Amino acid sequence: MASVGSVEPGARSELTVVEDAVCTFCGCVCDDIDLTVENNHITQAQRACVLGKAWFLNHAIDDRPSCLIDGQPAGLEDGYQRAAEILTGGKYPIVYGLSDSPCEAQRVAVSIVDWIDGTIDTTTSVCHGPSGMAFQGVGEVTCTLGEVANRGDFIMFWGSNPAESHPRHFTKYSLMPKGMFVPNGRKDRTCVIVDVRKTKSAKAADIFLQIKPRKDFEALWTLRALAKGIELDARQVESETGIELSVWQDLMDRMKAAKFGVIFFGMGLTMTRGKHANSEALLALTRDLNAYTRFTAKPNRGHGNVTGADNVVAWRTGYPFGVNHNRGYPRFNPGEYTTSDTLARGEADCGMMIACDPMANFSQPAREHLASIPYIALDSKETPTTRAATVAFTVATYGINAPGTVYRMDDVPIPLRPAFKSPHPSDFEVLSNIETRVKAIRGVRS
Amino acid sequence: MTKDLIKISQGTLYDPANGVDGEVRDLWIQGGRIIAAPSDPATKPARTIEAEGLVVMPGGIDMHCHIAGPKVNVARKMRPEEKRKAEVISRTDVTHSGTLGSVPSTFATGYKYAGMGYTTAFDAAIPPLGARHAHEEFDDTPCLDKGFYVLMGNNHYVMQSIQQNEPKKLKAFIAWLLTAAKGFAPKLVNPGGVEVWKHRQAGNVSGLDTEVDHFGVTPRQIVSQVAQSAQELGLPHPVHIHCNNLGMPGNWETTLETMRALEGRRGHLTHIQFHSYGGGEGDENTFNSKVVPLADYVNSHPNVTIDVGQVLFGETTSMTGDGPLGYFLSNIYGGKWFSSDTEMEAGCGITPIKYKNKSLVHALQWAIGLEWYLLVDDPWRVVMSTDHPNGGSFLAYPQIIRFLMDRTYRQDVLKTCHPLVGRRSTLADLHREYTLNEIAIITRAGPARILGLTNKGHLGPGADADITIYTPHENKEIMFELPRLVIKSGEVIVEQGEVRDSRIGKTLHVAPAYDVDAEADIQEWFEKYYSIRWRNYPVDPSYMHQPELIGSPNHGN
Fold first, then answer.
1. Whole-structure pTM over 0.95, yes or no?
2. A107 vs B93, B105, B140: nearest CB
């Protein structure tokens, strides 16, 4: 367990500055934030974007018990024991969430799942899970964000709206930076945005293409065909995609003329009609373009450590998400072992929801089933999920109050520099205590 | 009876580092280390392991494998299809569950290495920006002491220092980078070639004297000057080299030139099988073995050591820090392809591959690997490896041992291969058979010496008590795939394939001294180009599990 930069609670009037703190609000994981901390409140968050400022400056430690059992305040020890009993008492336990927890806590969560023969899944299954599946089909040609900043001269966003979802994406990584091989910054780059609506990001583009809704797959295959020089029916292309063939041809000419192209894609691609087939088309297009020039692609991941969750689950089980251990060893099947599906079909009989809010955003059948089974919730705030939990832990907020490691959307691991301590335990502490009790119940000596 | 004193009684010891070749002796262990036999004959151990009739060797050391970090984990995610049909690793009361296939999960990796009698392994290619990730995986990889090599053959600061003729800066940078990553040795992968790949479609260097785009330096300069700096820093394993032109017909000349570029300095050429090919470029009909002239060079130049990178027939995953190689292979095999360029530092390529005995190229690769073991005279300078998982899984080591100790078996397999292999290599004419002592050298004593691990690879007093006890068997594959007992740091961790203790093991790393004034220049460069902050780059020591500093004055205390 890495314990990086944990800060003792300051004396009453003490003012501290935490340099190069890490914002975990989105997948950009900006690690250049200077936090001013006064009386356990963050009063300044230099360099943070509008979302980051809201994350840091509005942060207040919830004044509620660290543990609630059946909605009543309870001791932590009682909570750990009850949690372990719930998890070991079921036949189909599920553990879900993890994308806003540090890797250290994620690792313990996967251990618990192993000891209870349970199912582990992360929020990847409802965001870029289809990209993960597409990746298993065709692979991926990608790079770190510093490569984009230093080399990218053709930057495309597809079904992604970073101006609102990742506000520093343009300035820190993709459009504005003056990089080693793009010394004039924005002037050296062409920006193309493809979306079904004119998003706030569109005004940053040199070329904005508004394609027909639910036609991403057709649009991407149009480009794949043009990349290979295959003749297409102009009328069909326009009627299917909403964009003239000549515009697509012009786009392809520019893509091939680029020295280092990058396509960022978002949930506008992965969670619309076609899902993993869309992601696969985009990854295959990127691969195809490497026969002409250098091209890379990258999903714009949302949650602060969803990339870490993919990594931790993969290194421990061999699979990235949706992993079932009911037979005592890992099996992978998205749709079967992914939580929204497991719940909607009424299969799980107990669970643990870590830093996620399925009671707010899953389908009604899934929510109804979750509400009907005993489960544990860990969150730094009160949510619909914590309210309906049998055992709810209020935990320290990672990055602000708790240390650990997070993976940026390009798989670069970054250590957290928390600003001040919380009276609540961290995810890592809660899960470690539950694991100890689970092992005792299951007779594990590891 | 003395607490925590263990005696391994009357085993047949193979301890080549101490000149012991199959002698029946007792071995005493205390505090995780091997100790001299107690002078008082009345001393009674707390535990006696009866080893009469059994073979006792130091624990195996894999000095070149891919078992952790960003690239390995991508390969795990990418290949679900091979896990479903693979043996399952079920959880027990002392072990985690896991998955196999060509890229096992972390826990499965540790259990399987230990089950085969290996107790130490080095991941061969970690980009420093992903070093933290490698350490996190190491912390979940049980039963092994571990370290990794740090990719720097395409690092901008390295090339810039060479271009500007600043050897002092280069030397300080190498030391700083190894320390920041908590790594073990400098690794050069296709020096210069990966940078060219980032500049151009299918970009690569073509040989030792091609200039690298933008930097104007050559692979020869990178090899020679990194080797020089590493020597001056006194690193335990100075430089680990994956040559340019891996896999290309005719690449043997590049390999020879790389050895020459060392100019007498110590250097290790890795998976040399992949770099020993004659023939014309792109012409499969002329593809042939050039092990004989290369082995001649190695035999007459004691500064050079090698590991083989043996190919085994079957399906596996190619994974490399050599980005352009990944592109080349993906075009040959036509399967899924992963490539990732790491800013300022490195590249990566992954694609599934299958080696077939009826393919002339693949069968020659298999034969060329075996030629290397059999044509290098001094076993201390040739190390067993499959470049796991590139040539095949580390789980193939027992089979390779059988190939080396049993020429009949070797020739029988050769007969199943493409008929031209006999004419394009010398394997059919090689009658050498390895002894158990020589096997002990190429799997433990030799790699320990090449890595500068004074406490490993031998059974003398002071050595780590990493010990494997085998039941002798006529079929050496059977003997080596299922040891009777495996002892790690003085504790029995495996009995007849069953894991008894799943401790995580140590992290082996270096921290060479350097001029701290040089950091200002590195920081200025770093802050100009990296996408993370200078302060957040070095790996905090808390990420290392039981760190052991190698090559420092305190080592061994």
1. yes
2. B140
